[in-house]
């Protein structure tokens, strides 16, 4: 619990890129992160180089409590970012140090705490049912207690803009209560998301002039202006911006981290990420969509697959001559690509780079690189996605470079039978016929679903022959149905995350049949383990 | 070819809500309107009450030529809107009246023509390869020819903002060429979509002051600011706004008609639609998504299904007391609805509210409410999630209130066999045994995956007995693997979205076996359809 400032960004602590995907973003309908998901999200955000990662609300949500506990035990080593715990001020009539929820914030051991406080008099009086003086005491007591305990504290002033319009004095008193008690940043929240940029910028400028406090901004997208409002607030003097990955959040969502960052970097020239960070925006956006199990928005600004795709025949030839006349920025700046039917890996340069990262040298083998680019493009057009499946990509690249394909086994056939019997019981049984170390092996096993049964049968068949097999376990399994309107006859993409206790790796399989797609990913997982030993 | 002004809107011709879904919106990857589609889109836009409908580019696109021909023959009777043909100025070195493309614009017989002209000197010199004087002549010749022929003309100044920043004089000369020749509105286009609201508003204000022309605005969404930029331009003096339905368009898309209109009506108090038009925004948005064959964006501002959905159980009771404290506008204003999401954190208040929304009155049945709350909590702890599955929740609530369970069929058993044969082929086959209308029916079918096969077998068994079955189709199918670290032995949650062409409804199934989970959701979908008739 030492560093409370972002590390490695040119702007240092002068500007805060603050992510709340794991707390406010998780309010989006349909998102439900496991603790492993949360750790993976935090690692990706740190790779990108955001300054602060709000991990959740310890004490209020059991998964969040566990997340902070595992982070504190060393499962989350952050290079750039600082971990933040979110919570509310003490209850009315209590003391901060005796408040259970406030204690839970301390127990989370995050170096920074963001406290939410009501700043709209109507909410204070009607929802909180206290007077303004008590509301301010709740803020100052809690802030000063946490500061005494060694935490850096930010204050989220909930419903600030509506509150300021209704009763500016109350709204400012809440900010003062926080700042005077030691809160480092007071964050103006457009909680209901009803603001427009010109008016919001005016308010931010006014509040800055009246208080001199360090201001943050938190916008919701109910007017479709969350990104615009966030950027306008920065232009008006805010130096701390709260966003979520891909704008995930309640109702219409939050300000999209990638849109906001793209604008700050490309339009305002602010170095809010470490060197090289901006070029990771597209990759990280897609990986975070994968973890949230939400199809990436192909038309998302800056990072969408279509963000720089040109359909207008009108422009086609002119684009070739002078691409920058038809793009608002160079797509490479944010790690994106101009081609129509863009894929993340489509370019030679990025595939070569990725190969180097995976230990496959493609630089000296232009033909292998060409054929790998072609193959990746073809597979991605069929629905494969290697963004979150490095292990499968590595196997593909090794095959293209002519390295021997050392599959530890080959399949003859499998059969899976699912029975929903008349007594209501549901049974899954799988039989595999495989060849391993010169032997033909048949094994049958049951499982609580078709993929589980198949995995069990495969293990039963192979484990006498492959000594390392027992150490490998399936850590996570994700299914994504591709193509919008075709129901159960659509293509299925399966991601399998495996672990041997030391390392974790992810493989992918795509097929119209979910069981076959799973089989492909399961096999890659074992082949990859065999390769690495 | 008489009326050139919008009819029936309080603002009349003083403000133009201009839609270009059929031309610029059709640039979106994946959209391909038939002529019948185009007519249907135009009718819906007219029902909503937009002032101008740009129908396409006659002469350049055969379907557009046909659309205008059929519209002129009386297939499109517009109540509010005026039809607009889009095209470009004459070619360099030609005369307007001899230019084939310009003649095609006349032949389209639309009362208004919007001409696109380059206003960025770099584009004029490098793409058009003429000098600025000739570019201006192309504009003034074409505008004055069309005006002489009785057309009202608007001028789209392409790449205006980039051009103005690079060489303001050239950009202004192009505007002048158009306005002096008789163009009624000069439209400032952010063609590359690189603008931010504060700067864009400043430019609009400046151009208005320097020229006094009637100004329009056309924004692309490459900075995720198209809606914000459009609204900022109106605040800065533009009185003509070009949008597309749901923001469809090239790259990141255009300014969303529904977001822009929502803001103009709800935030700026401008009566840009006929009386009652705003309340049609949600319906028309969804209908236009249907025609475009694109799933509606559930998180779209104002009109998305989740735009007013609240998840935080924390607030549920407060929301019931004072909904406007938690919504930026009354959702009814735009024809939307406040939805309460049932989640783990939910209590009696939100379930009662949800029941009312679904037409199940729990207020007078405290015992049924108690047992429903208990059941929902238990199921959600097991991994069920009703927040996106209203139809399943409705069935559950009806059961708790003692309404008869009128399942149209019962299951005896099913069996699914999946074969990956030694020749590599993968086969899925399902057999169901069901009881329907006193009969025991057995049916077998194949599919390209286990769920598809099961769905096919069930339909085969039931369709002779249930006349409505053929109208029901699976519109979407989602799979979520629950629980973090347990791999393939985890619980699976399946969401099935069904449609009968008029209504859509979503059901949920949870089970360790993905096929059984799918079965549960499929059955709920049919039972719900049977209930509603």
TrEMBL record, chains A, B:
Pathway: Amino-acid biosynthesis; L-isoleucine biosynthesis; 2-oxobutanoate from pyruvate: step 1/3
CDD domains per UniProt: DRE_TIM_LeuA3
Alphabetized Gene3D superfamilies for the sequence: 1.10.238.260, 3.30.160.270, Aldolase class I
EC number: 2.3.3.21
Chemical reaction(s) catalysed: pyruvate + acetyl-CoA + H2O = (3R)-citramalate + CoA + H(+)
PROSITE patterns: AIPM_HOMOCIT_SYNTH_1, PYR_CT
InterPro entries, per database record: 2-isopropylmalate_synth_dimer, AIPM/Hcit_synth_CS, Aldolase_TIM, Citramal_synthase, LeuA/HCS_post-cat, LeuA_allosteric_dom_sf, PYR_CT
SMART domains associated with the record: LeuA_dimer (SM00917)
Chain ranges of the Pyruvate carboxyltransferase domain: 15-283
UniProt keywords, alphabetically: Amino-acid biosynthesis, Branched-chain amino acid biosynthesis, Isoleucine biosynthesis, Transferase
Pfam families: HCS_D2, HMGL-like, LeuA_dimer
PANTHER family named among the record's database cross-references: (R)-CITRAMALATE SYNTHASE, ALPHA-IPM SYNTHASE/HOMOCITRATE SYNTHASE
NCBIfam families hit by this protein: citramal_synth
Protein family according to the UniProt entry: Belongs to the alpha-IPM synthase/homocitrate synthase family.
Name the record gives this protein: Citramalate synthase
Species this protein is from: Amycolatopsis acididurans
